[in-house]
Specification:
144 residues; mainly alpha
């Protein structure tokens, strides 16, 4: 049952979150150095350190949810938790992008800031499909 449509959405969400953690730029600083999420692990701010880990948690939750196709309720709950992680990540990225030093001189944001938005949309669509499957199974059980 891995070939269900929500598995495709969850797989794309996991790939996007994993790519955003390692290979997609978040923003460019005043001295023209590109900042990636993995570079923020060594930053002194705790808030910036959580960005990398939130991307990783999002990717792992999506991958785990793919393989829980027999437990649709748990898959739905993991989708909701993943949605909350991505909303937190989106809030932190918006806050950090607005408070970057030298913001007036440089406002060059990377594409990594938009990945949580796409992941949130994919998770919402996947949760709708999971709920639809659950309702279908319940309706079949009533007919027995």
């Amino acid at each position: 049952m891995i070939q269900r449509v929500q598995s495709i959405y969850l797989c794309i969400a996991a790939i996007l979150a994993g790519c955003a953690a390692f290979s997609v730029s978040l923003w460019t600083t005043v001295v023209d150095s590109t900042v990636y999420a993995q570079d923020l692990i060594h930053h002194p701010s705790v808030l910036l350190k959580t960005i990398f880990f939130a991307f990783l948690v999002s990717a792992v939750l999506s991958l785990v949810a793919i393989f829980l196709f027999k437990k649709r309720q748990l898959q739905f709950v993991l989708g909701r938790v993943n949605l909350l992680v991505n909303l937190y990540l989106l809030g932190v990225l918006i806050y950090v992008s607005q408070t970057l030093p030298g913001e007036a001189a440089v406002s060059e944001k990377g594409i990594g800031l938009f990945f949580p938005i796409v992941v949130v949309l994919l998770l919402v669509i996947a949760n709708k499909a999971i709920k639809k499957d659950e309702e279908l199974v319940k309706s079949v059980d009533r007919l027995r």
